[in-house]
Amino acid sequence: MSRSPAPDTGAHRVLILVICCASILLVSLDVTILNVALPSIQRELHTSIAGVQWTIDGYVLVLASLLLLAGSMADRFGRRRVFQLGLLVFGLGSLLCSLAPSLAWLIAFRMLQGVGGSMLNPVALSIISNTFIDPRERARAIGAWSGVVGISIASGPIIGGALIDAAGWRSVFWINVPIAALALIMTRFFVPESKAARARHPDPVGQILIVGVLAALLYGIIDAPTAGWSSPVVIACFVISLGSLVGLIRYELARREPLLELRFFQSAPFSGASIVAVCAFIALGGFLFLNTLYLQDVRGLSALRAGLFLLPMAAAMFVLGPVSGYLVARRGPRPSLVIGGAALSASALLFALGASRPSDPRLFLGYALIGVGLGLMNAAITNTAVSGMPRAQSGVASATTSTTRQIGQALGVAVVGSILASNSRRIMPGSAFASGETASWWVIFGCGIAVVVVALVTTGRWGEATAQRMARLIAAEELA
Q1: Is the pLDDT of residue 4 over 50?
Q2: Which of 40, 55, 134, 304 has the smallest number of Cβ neighbours within 10 A?
Q3: How far are the Cα atoms of 131, 156, 335, 394 from residue 348, in angstroms, in the given order?
Q4: For the segment 147-169, what is each residue's pLDDT rounded down to a tens digit?
Q5: The model's pTM
Q6: What is the 3-state secondary structure (H, E, C) of the chain?
Q7: CATH architecture for residues 10-203+255-479
Q8: Quick one: pLDDT at residue 345?
């Protein structure tokens, strides 16, 4: 096997960044583009709201559960190798999703996509961290990477709407196949192989416990509107989730090389970035799920028109992703996180206190504010979590950050979907949807406030001191 050249020139580093950005384009675009297809899937496959929730959360559940494993495997077996495997599996899963004959098969193939997706984002971020060594260069690279996240998240509904109106919901999966194939070829020739000098041993028990935490929690939340919150099955799910979490913490603390590196959370900026990521992506996942159903089922818009309504959000995220990277490089993460959280809360407040059928200008303003919030926060979350971490463990650190994002995304869909389902068994125009919509916006408002508070607490001098202590602790233990 030929050896890829080292990224010793600026042009080569930019090319590596472009290839890594293609992976985040795939994963982020896939989630948002599918949201626009949910009403069409619901009608064609004759499923309930819980069914369409699982088309999103089945994918995100697998993705979130395997991200840490993928990060550690990349550190052990090679980041380029794992990245290529992820592209191959994701492309295959996308092709199979487009051929799914029923909801059950669609969810199963979405889970296969999740397996591939778990090998993309954290590994791509680890490749970027190892390619751009200078802190300011890395912050700008992560800003560009986050800008692509913004583009894919916001443009997904527009692209998806056009595809659905032209060729049906199955077409939203076709777009992934050529992108994955091209990225796979370019990775083979232009991305150098890298791995940790001393990789971790596998942790199957930790992996099983992570699946138990997430799967039981999501199933309980999604099933509760139908079975009832006091149902023995729902209560059992929450007990299993909590028990798995306690077991995970105790088990990982006792391991020398855990799958979930709990020592990272001794850094206040890392812990804060993780909490912010969960809150921000609860808001994003909940918003996309809620907004799609509102625009298409309540307002009666076509998939394309519903997607076009999100142009203000797309524009804000496109512009502010790179700006946030520059701002983080110059001023640190606090301004981006605080302003972003405030913008997110302002948007939710605008909708929560507004009429049940807001005017188009009100919608556009609210969507733009959401774009401002997410566009500013994403680069700051990533840079805060990765900065100060040992380079040898960059795969694990990147995977942990990506996991918190996906947990937030899954919880956003589950919580908002359950709120809506609790108010109405079917998503349809009427007071039941309006009541659920208002409650959902208050949840998103709370997420924005939490981002502001956590950012103010964890990004100051005290936070930096805890990050330095954590880095020294890990370095000392690695040498022992």
Answers
A1: no
A2: 134
A3: 38, 21, 20, 35
A4: 676 677 667 778 888 888 888 88
A5: 0.80
A6: CCCCCCCCCHHHHHHHHHHHHHHHHHHHHHHHHHHHHHHHHHHHCCCCHHHHHHHHHHHHHHHHHHHHHHHHHHHHHCHHHHHHHHHHHHHHHHHHHHCCCCHHHHHHHHHHHHHHHHCCHHHHHHHHHHHCCCHHHHHHHHHHHHHHHHHHHHHHHHHHHHHHHHHCHHHHHCCHHHHHHHHHHHHHHHCCCCCCCCCCCCCHHHHHHHHHHHHHHHHHHHHHHHHCCCCHHHHHHHHHHHHHHHHHHHHHHHCCCCCCCHHHHHCHHHHHHHHHHHHHHHHHHHHHHHHHHHHHHHCCCCHHHHHHCCHHHHHHHHHHHHHHHHHHHHHCCHHHHHHHHHHHHHHHHHHHCCCCCCCHHHHHHHHHHHHHHHHHHHHHHHHHHHCCCCHHHHHHHHHHHHHHHHHHHHHHHHHHHHHHHHHCCCCCCCHHHHHHHHHHHHHHHHHHHHHHHHHHHHCCHHHHHHHHHHHHHHHHHHHC
A7: Up-down Bundle (1.20)
A8: 93
Q: What is the pLDDT of residues 306-322, one digit of tens each?
A: 888 888 887 888 788 77
pLDDT surpassing 80 at residue 383: no
Token pair recorded at residue 475? 């370095």
